[in-house]
């Protein structure tokens, strides 16, 4: 009877404890899993562990923000100090040109309006508007560029229109530029060997005349002393030329270059000084 009771008790315990029904390997695996869960639970950081880390991060963020603010403040002070100091003012203004310029350096500087007391930064920021102003103030300036050299030196580099003739008005001679504009400066006597224009006004007729004139060979251009605009009802483009050899020529502006190139051969055939008419056809007659 005692043996039977013992067997029943073993069966009861095995039913109550599921681990007792496991194999030794399964029991070992279960123990390992339980120990790993306990280790993970112990390794989870608590608020007490997190506090020092949070304090360190806050300190780093504060240092970075303070460094950034100090950097910005120093930059503001440096910029402000630069504008207040003489280093921000122009030290020297120079003028250069890609060709021999008919303008003096002072004339170009006056056209720019730049002075040595001006700010370098201000000139640099407004260099395009200053260049445009120079071409308006001085008709001889074709284009201008403004650059800064050695931090404080301003260089004005210009291109100028060529002088293609002299406009006579009263007793004064004004340079005529290749774009048809008439310069403001004048002289009492011609200072070059350019042809003299008279009775022209700055406009399309003068510009067309200059284009026609520039198409001629240099030998023909140099033989012309004066070009006078003398329009009529029949020919509103008529011009009257006075030649260096003593002859006179009548021509039309729009056909001037085409017909005037034959003038040297016509002049050779003339036995006396006279007039060459190139308005309609080409013929000559003595004075």
TrEMBL record:
Biased composition regions of type Basic residues, renumbered to the chain = 1-11
Q: Which UniProt keywords apply?
A: Cell cycle, Cell division, Cell membrane, Membrane, Transmembrane, Transmembrane helix
Q: Where in the cell is it found?
A: Cell membrane
Keyword Cell membrane appears in the UniProt entry: yes
Region annotation (Disordered) ranges: 1-46
Start and end residues of each Cell division protein FtsQ/DivIB C-terminal domain: 170-272
Show the InterPro entries listed in the entry: Cell_div_FtsQ/DivIB_C, DivIB, FtsQ_DivIB
Q: Name one GO biological process term.
A: FtsZ-dependent cytokinesis
Taxonomy, superkingdom: Bacteria
For membrane topology, the record states:
Single-pass type II membrane protein
- HAMAP family to which the protein is assigned, alphabetical: DivIB
Describe the function of this protein.
Cell division protein that may be involved in stabilizing or promoting the assembly of the division complex.
Q: What is this protein called?
A: Cell division protein DivIB
Q: What is the lineage of its organism?
A: Bacteria, Bacillati, Bacillota, Bacilli, Lactobacillales
Q: Which gene encodes it?
A: divIB
